[in-house]
Amino acid sequence: MASLPTKMKGVIIEKTGGTEVLQYKTDLPVPSPGDGQVLVKNDYVGVNFIDTYFRTGLYPAPKYPYILGREAEGTVVKAGSGELYGLKEGDKVLMLSEGTYAEYTAANAVKAVKVKDGLEAKVGAAALLQGLTALTLIREAHPVKKGDWVLVHAAAGGTGLWLVQLLKAVGANIIGTASTQEKVDLARKAGAEHMINYSHEDVKSKVMELTKDAGCIAVFDGVGKTTFDLSLDCLARKGSMVSFGNASGAVPPVTIGRLSAKNARLMRPTLFNYIATREEFEHYVDELMDFITEDKLDARIHETYALSDVARAHNDLEGRKTTGKLLLDPSK
């Protein structure tokens, strides 16, 4: 392997705020892999709402300056010591790691896996965090069965499209919501047979019409503040209300007694608590990659942005201007 540079491109924040706090640097130090780590030269980096949560301060950064990012695909260029789960220099890998908004990331090997043969470039970075989120939601947050009526908010968004495709693969009856005809058409093409354009249609009325007033046994809500009450209204008796994101802001405190009207379950899961162990991580990555290759799931990529254009990527994501996945190219 060629000698490594000492400096790299990357994006840091030194305080919280809007996109003006994103600092593109060309002279950040290249990290060294520690015990149980591999140094990865990133080819493509995923952009996720969680990145905006750290930028705005909704989630606290562990330190400043802080390199954003949670996932990437790339090549191992240096191996650290300790347990590396068979990873070595030259391996193409997918990984969940902090600090991926950069050319190089020292990633914990426990959350990195080799790219499966035949997987096209960009697909891994586009699929990993959102695809695993969707898969663990339908397997663990509410184990969805064939024939279940399920509501997915923001069905044309990144995680929404994964939810729709996976729910279709397991035989659920899918109701999706979206704000424009373009997004309605996209989610319908992905497998959401019943779509509601909430810009001019009443979501609750449509859900009750489709389910013959029973409601949905599961609601997957990544929008948060603006849809929480609506989600509870659309829930069936003994249904699961799964709030997994804050795209519109954090959900205010909830009076627990509200759940008794339907004997409802309320969950606020995070992906990382479903894949805490190596065994769990490998299990769900393998299952997700099988869905992608065997069921031909589409890792729809909205756009690949230059790393230096990260502010536009965040603005597009937060402004609901996107469908599918946003990627960053750290070489630019």
Automatic annotation (TrEMBL):
CDD domains: QOR2 (cd05286). InterPro entries: ADH-like_C, ADH-like_N, ER, GroES-like_sf, NAD(P)-bd_dom_sf, QOR-like, Quin_OxRdtase/zeta-crystal_CS. The keyword Coiled coil does not apply. Keywords: NADP, Oxidoreductase. Residues 17-328 form the Enoyl reductase (ER) domain. One of its GO terms (cellular component) is cytosol. The keyword Nucleus does not apply. GO terms for molecular function: mRNA 3'-UTR AU-rich region binding; NADPH binding; quinone reductase (NADPH) activity; zinc ion binding. PROSITE patterns: QOR_ZETA_CRYSTAL (PS01162). It comes from the Eukaryota. This is Probable quinone oxidoreductase. It comes from Friedmanniomyces endolithicus.
